[in-house]
Design brief:
Blueprint: H1 6-27, H2 33-59, H3 64-89, H4 95-112, H5 120-125, H6 133-158, H7 163-187, H8 191-210, H9 217-251, H10 258-287, H11 295-306, H12 312-327, E1 332-342, E2 345-352, E3 364-366, H13 371-378, E4 383-384, H14 385-390, H15 399-407, E5 412-418, E6 421-428, H16 439-527, H17 529-532, H18 535-565, E7 574-576, H19 578-588, H20 590-595, E8 599-603, E9 611-613, H21 615-631, E10 638-646, E11 657-664, H22 705-715, E12 719-723, E13 735-742
Helix pairs in contact: 1-2, 1-8, 2-3, 2-8, 3-4, 3-6, 3-7, 4-6, 6-7, 7-8, 9-10, 11-12, 11-16, 12-16, 16-18, 18-22, 19-21, 21-22
């Protein structure tokens, strides 16, 4: 049956405590597996030792096996704790110590278990309970290794760690003190008290291993002193109350009940509890000063200072400056996070803004798949520099990222978010006091980061608006400049066009007078029978007449073009027969058609209805179109002129109209030039290759005919266009010219 005695109860509680700690370690085994595996081995050994001790003590109370169990546990636990110290404090023990520990274990086992075959009488004389070789080996080995554990811990504390790592060392030293005290009691067989002292030692050890960050020792000191002072004051009041109450009752000669007296003292203590707690806090604050800033005041000043700043650099200086004044830091920076494309891959560029420090750090570059970037982007909580160095989560981080963070000399990084957008990062250096960042500091920084996010978002919005405004101003100025240039260019074009038109108009009128005179004299020469009797002279006179006629046509065309350009072309609207107009044109071209052996057919022209228009102007239209077909159709080719009526609503004609199609089997038109042929002075092909005759194949001209035709058709509110499969002098694909004229001339213009 399980004995209910202090030793058994302490052993049972210890076994349950170590089992719970082991299960908790297994549950949080993902990170830092090596050190946590070592902790699990230590807890497993402690649990096994407690269970063996409990079983042996229950079966054979006060037997030497109970003590031997604890002694072997002591030897093994020192080795495991040495390995744990190395893993936690990052101080490597000498390799020789492991060999020395093995030698110590072997020596103690040989002597303790009498493996050398010493006689029973001799062995009893060397009983462990007496000063003996066994006890000395155990004590000397324990003392040496325990001293070395303290040496490693103090050596780690002297290293230039940041405050967070150094703070973990303080807790480790505290755990080591409890462990060493427990081992000392085990060494001298004070098992119950040894178990009790080992509990806090093991708990401290597991906490340091499993937690990345331990509370500041100053906080722990403050809490401990609060309870100590409060307990002391309460005890003083209780003792004074118990000492003073009986004499008071005796003095007044009143019989009193002890329970009643205790109740009075309890009520008195309850009444003094609150004042005593306030008094104890004042005493503790003088011994261990608390944080020197008022959180509510810092938040109010921070919010008021940042609310009116709309420039990112000034915002950075103000934000970091306020944090420095509140927490008293050596340096600090605000980084603005920009998502960019670099050589086709997405990156985060941490652009430093103005901060507090000797020099402004260089910009950092983080890959989106980096564990550091993933943490800062998703975790809305601070990241410590110590965590970057010891947390296995960041072991796969690129080396250049780790080096960049280390170069900042910061201890805490606080990401800044707006919703899910990572906007910035606050990097804070060590405190001037050398103390680590407390939980209350981090809570304050988290709140300040939220306020910074709002201010930074407003600053970015204002910056974006200013940038857009500047872009708009530049674009508007560029548009105004371009518009000014366009106006000047347009004015120049108008002036050139006006000058050209004036030149054409003046030149045409000036040329017409001498041409009229020349034509008159030429007609007299044609009527002179004496001159015509000579064949050579008659040919010369006829050639002069042909040239004068051709020159007169060109001048008339130039005048028509000028009047079209200046919108002074006047139409004499009357009822016009398209059939008669085209027949008049064909009659005038009968000679060239016969000369070129061109076959010209007309279809359905006589069936076309009359339209409202200018007959003379329309004659010019069809003359120029048919002449164009004649010039670009080879000798012996064919030309067809057809017409169809257009019903109401078709082809955009509300009241109907007529469509005339002039089709030829000529060389065709390049699709690239299909629109250019209707512009002024446009010549197809190379002008040097053209003939000089008006109706010759590919005959040259001023390039005004189709432009005049287009202008006259559009003046009648009609349409003209050309269709051709392409240009080919060998196959002659031909072309078609379509002319649409409305039945009625618009009365409004």
């Amino acid at each position: 049956m399980f004995p209910l005695e202090p030793h058994s109860i302490a052993t049972l509680i210890g076994s349950l405590l170590y089992l719970a700690a082991g299960l908790f370690t297994l549950r949080h085994f993902r990170h830092r597996r090596q050190v946590r595996l070592m902790l699990l081995a230590y807890l497993g050994l402690a649990f096994t030792a407690c269970v063996l001790e409990l079983v042996l003590h229950t079966a054979r109370p006060n037997h030497e096996l109970v003590y031997r169990t604890n002694h072997y546990w002591l030897v093994l636990s020192i080795f495991l704790y040495m390995e744990l110290t190395w893993q936690v404090l990052l101080v490597r023990p000498r390799k020789e110590l492991r060999i020395l520990w093995l030698a110590w274990l072997a020596l103690f086992t040989i002597v303790d278990l009498n493996l050398l075959g010493i006689s029973e009488s001799t062995y009893r004389a060397l009983n462990f309970s007496q000063p003996s070789f066994t006890g000395a080996a155990l004590a000397v080995g324990w003392l040496g290794f325990t001293w070395y554990l303290f040496y490693l811990a103090l050596k780690a504390l002297r290293k230039p760690y940041e405050p967070v790592t150094r703070n973990r060392g303080y807790y480790w030293v505290l755990a080591l003190i409890f462990i060493a005290s427990s081992d000392f009691l085990f060494l001298f067989d004070f098992l119950t008290l040894g178990h009790i002292l080992r509990w806090p030692g093991v708990l401290f050890t597991a906490t340091v291993v499993l937690r990345e960050f331990m509370p500041d020792t100053r906080v722990a000191e403050r809490i401990a002193l609060n309870y100590l002072v409060m307990t002391t004051l309460t005890a003083i009041v209780l003792i004074v109350g118990l000492l003073v109450t009986p004499p008071l009752f005796d003095a007044v000669q009143v019989n009193y009940n002890a329970a009643l007296a205790g109740m009075v003292v309890a009520i008195f203590l309850a009444a003094l509890l609150s004042p005593l707690w306030v008094f104890s806090q004042k005493i503790v604050q003088r011994i261990v000063p608390p944080t020197q800033y008022d959180t509510s005041l810092v938040l109010r000043e921070y919010s008021q200072s940042l609310s009116n700043i709309l420039e990112p650099d000034l915002l950075a200086s103000a934000a970091v400056g306020l944090v420095r004044d509140a927490i008293e830091i050596e340096r600090g920076y605000l980084f603005l996070v920009d998502s960019e494309l670099d050589e086709g891959r997405q990156i985060y560029r941490l652009r430093p803004s103005k901060g507090i420090g000797e020099t402004l750090p260089i910009a950092g570059v983080l890959a989106p798949d980096s564990p550091i970037a993933a943490y800062l982007r998703k975790q809305h909580k601070p990241l410590r520099q110590a965590e970057l160095e010891i947390n296995p989560l960041f072991q796969s981080a690129p080396k250049h990222e780790c080096k960049w963070f280390a170069s900042l000399g910061a201890e805490v990084y606080m990401p800044i978010y707006t919703k899910d957008d990572w906007m910035g990062l606050i990097a804070l250096g060590p405190k001037t006091s050398g103390t680590p960042y407390l939980d209350e500091d981090l809570a304050l920084l988290a709140t300040l980061a939220d306020q910074t996010a709002v201010a930074l978002q407003n600053a970015r919005l204002v910056e974006s608006l200013m940038r857009l405004n500047n872009d708009f101003r530049r674009a508007y100025a560029a548009m105004e400049q371009a518009n000014s240039h366009l106006k000047r260019a347009n004015q120049q074009l108008q002036n050139l066009d006006r000058t050209k038109s004036d030149f054409i108009n003046i030149a045409s009128h000036e040329l017409r007078t001498p041409l009229t005179i020349m034509r008159g004299y030429n007609e007299l020469l044609l009527e002179d029978q004496a001159l015509n009797g000579n064949a050579a002279q008659a040919k010369l006179i006829k050639g002069i007449y042909t040239g004068i006629t051709r020159l007169n046509e060109i001048i008339n065309s130039m005048l028509d073009m000028a009047s079209i350009d200046t919108r002074t072309f006047e139409l004499r609207v009357e009822m016009v027969s398209i059939f008669q107009v085209i027949q008049t044109v064909l009659t005038g071209l009968s000679g060239p058609l016969k000369e070129r052996n061109l076959n010209l057919d007309s279809e359905n022209l006589s069936d076309l209805p009359q339209i409202e228009g200018d007959a003379e102007a329309l004659r010019k239209v069809f003359y120029h179109v048919i002449i164009n077909a004649v010039k670009f159709t080879p000798d012996g080719g064919s030309i067809t002129i057809s017409g169809v009526p257009v019903s109401q609503g078709q082809l955009g004609l509300a009241e109907g109209g007529v469509e005339i199609i002039v089709a030829d089997r000529g060389i065709g038109i390049n699709p690239e030039y299909i629109e250019l042929i209707f512009t002024k002075f446009y010549q197809t092909g190379e002008l040097a290759l053209h003939s000089s005759g008006r109706t010759k194949f590919k005959g040259a001209g001023p390039g005004l005919g189709l432009a005049i035709a287009k202008g006259i058709v559009e003046a009648h509110r009609g349409k003209i266009w050309a269709v051709s499969p392409g240009y080919d002098e060998a196959r002659c694909p031909g072309s078609e010219f379509h002319i649409i004229l409305p039945l009625h001339f618009p009365k409004n213009g």
